[in-house]
Amino acid sequence: MEDRGGRLFTFMGEMEEALSAIFKTYGKFTLYAHEEKAGRAAHERNKRVREWMNERGLRFLEYPVNEKNSGRKSQERWNELRQSEPVRSPEQIRAPEDFPASFNMGADKLGYFSVSGDAIRFGQQGGEQQAVETLETFLQERFQSYEENGSNLLQSTVSSSRLSPYLAWGNISFRTVVQKTSIKIENCDNLFLVKQLTSFQERLKERWKLMEQGNILESAHNSFKKDDLFLRWFNGETGIPMIDAAMNCLHKTGWIPSKYRGVLVSFAVNTLSLNVQMCSDALASLFLDYEPVIHVHQIHKMSQKVQDPVKIGKKEDSDGVFIKRYLPSLSNVPSKHIHEPWHYPGFFHLDYQAPAVDVKKANQAARKSRSGTAARSAKASDHEQLKFDL
Ligand SMILES: Cc1cc2nc3c(=O)[nH]c(=O)nc-3n(C[C@H](O)[C@H](O)[C@H](O)COP(=O)(O)OP(=O)(O)OC[C@H]3O[C@@H](n4cnc5c(N)ncnc54)[C@H](O)[C@@H]3O)c2cc1C
């Protein structure tokens, strides 16, 4: 932008304050933005901005993220997205010399903006360059075992595209990803490789369709009591290795394959009977790729399924390599017991907690409750835990 005469200004505060400062400095102006689908807070802020602009007779142009209401069929719109030329960057940008005193030049000051929560220490690094490199390495090589390793806890960290945080944060445009993938498919004559790429493209299309569905607002923000069971789940201390390892992986890296996101949700909502909204918010705070529209949709879908993390763990991480990586206290437990360490004779010498719940019994109750045949106990109780055959 700077090469073409542009300048970047940043402002920290409420939108109306920024707009007032602009109005005071320049007089009448038009506000351009992309339509935003980012949950309740952003929705309400945008409503306030529209009102603020209207009251002053100023134009607010929000470009639609999709053309859902254009009257054209979905496939037609998708084909256009795959083929249309990107809009060309302007040769020159005319930036004003003066700017409001409350504005900052550049983005450096944003580094001082304080956010709550723990830092994700081993997560992907942000930035356009990283996003482009991630796409390039995926399309050059990493995609080759995309399908085979899709739900492999360790391999998928490499063979999955890992583009989700970049797409969520806007480090790379969705159109670029779709178009580069289409070009790769067109130029590839190996059927097996085409299958991997097509499968990846299906995921992109899934995203596109969901984003087209419009604003999915989270339910009103309630403050739920974060009881002991919730904290054990959130902190990866449930005593169920598959859940605890997946949670620790999320705390450290901010990413885990889709299948295990579903397992975490199902376990929390069905097995532990935790509040779905509270769990959704908690996971949103851990996902580096948090995208409200996708997130809310997936949480809803996955909370309907009752899943057994012990069974899934035995199938997908039979030797417990993933578990041992994220739960070092279990590193000496033999593979035979890694998914149910409470059956391991040396369990009491391990620095690992007893399971918070009897998964089978709690899941049976959840299934019954889902099918409406019996009332489910409100919470997985201590009583259930004590009945465990340790
Ligand atoms: C409970 C739950 C919550 C989720 N929350 C999010 C979220 O907040 N943000 C998010 O981007 N994804 C979310 N997903 C979808 C999925 O887990 C991630 O998109 C995926 O793991 C990202 O890794 P990747 O980029 O390597 O995916 P790839 O498999 O390489 O897929 C490429 C892209 O397609 C999109 N995509 C992939 N899977 C899905 C899907 N099931 N639905 C919609 N789009 C998809 C993503 O943008 C992804 O980057 C969630 C899934 C579940 C089960």
List keywords for this structure.
390 residues, mainly alpha, DNA Cyclobutane Dipyrimidine Photolyase, subunit A, domain 3, 3 domains, two-stranded antiparallel sheet, two-stranded parallel ribbon, 4 strands, binds flavin-adenine dinucleotide, Crypto/Photolyase_FAD-like_sf, flavoprotein
Total strand count, please? 4
- Give the helices and strands as they follow along the chain: EHEHEHEHHHHHHHHHHHHHH
Q: Tell me the radius of gyration.
A: 24 Å
Q: What strand line-up does the widest sheet have?
A: 1-4
At the first level of CATH, what is the class of the largest domain?
Mainly Alpha
Low-pLDDT stretches:
373-390
What is the straight-line distance between the termini? Answer: 64 Å
Query: Could you report the average pLDDT, rounded to the nearest whole number?
Result: 90
CATH architecture identity of the largest domain = Orthogonal Bundle
The secondary-structure class comes to: mainly alpha
Continuous helix count: 17
Overall structural domain count: 3
Keywords: FAD, Flavoprotein, Lyase
InterPro entries: Crypto/Photolyase_FAD-like_sf, Crypto/Photolyase_N_sf, Cryptochr/Photolyase_FAD-bd, Cryptochrome/DNA_photolyase_1, DNA_photolyase_N, Rossmann-like_a/b/a_fold
Protein name: Deoxyribodipyrimidine photo-lyase
Organism: Metabacillus idriensis
